[in-house]
Write a structure and sequence with these properties.
SDR_fam, 9-stranded mixed sheet, oxidoreductase activity, 2 domains, 14% strand, Sc_DH/Rdtase_CS, 9 strands, Rossmann fold, alpha/beta
Length: 307
Amino acid sequence: MARFDPEPILSYGHKDKVVVLTGGAHGIGAATVSLLYQNGAHVFFGDRDATAGTALEASYPERVHFVQTNVSNYSSALNLFKVAYSKHGRIDHAFAIAGISEQTNWFHPSLDLESIETVPEPSTLNVDLLGTIYFARIAAVYLRQGDSSDEDSADKSLILISSIAGFTESPGMPLYCAAKHGVLGLMRALRPSLPSSHGISVSVVCPWMSATGMVDDIQDAWQRAGLPMNQPAEVAQIIVGLAAVGEEGNGKAIYVEGGRGWDIEAALDDTREVWMGKSQSQSWLEGQKLLMGHPGSAAYWSSLKGG
């Protein structure tokens, strides 16, 4: 796979940029807030944890603002963007980092004809998938507003957080796995359109095991087994690095293992004729061209800026 190394570009172009992100009070989100601050950005971060969010904001002397946010509530997510936009008149980058793990077992073997009548609790889907879709929809509008120059606008980015569970199976976590597959699918659906219709690049980061509160119960055993573990700051470097490359990052899906990143989309493209078949691959490419150019297709608007 093609390696993505953010180190040479981490400090490029972030000074005075306005960045909105979710999940900023803990883990990868908090590490991203820190890295952006170090690089001179103005950061507006949302999180549902008001205590941790307020404390994190207070630890910075300037340029970092906390807005209590429930990403699964559309009005709450919208308010985060409104606050940032009201202060600076523009937003340059948006990172959808908020996420939760599996909360309940929808497929528990004890389910029977009586218990199946109860509607299951959907918070994993609401936060990890619906919340990300809400965020992306709102970001797509706010990122194209404001007083940035045409040159700056070309580097505006929307970065979504999926997981290794977004392209492999994750036993025991069906909702989390489905949601993270959905986030990767959302990026793939938006990448042909957002650059031309909105002037925004879109990409996704897919971390493997990362040292956050989501994996407290398994972290020790994982490390004893000698398996690779991402540190939050390492994943933050991938996220901020993707924003730094601007439109060159469009369509990338960066898998992060042990702090190192690889673009899985490039590998899939390079081997399509192997896993899809040569003739099938050629037919698919022709079909994509037709869909992008036919007025009767839902994809057609993507070729029309402002359409």
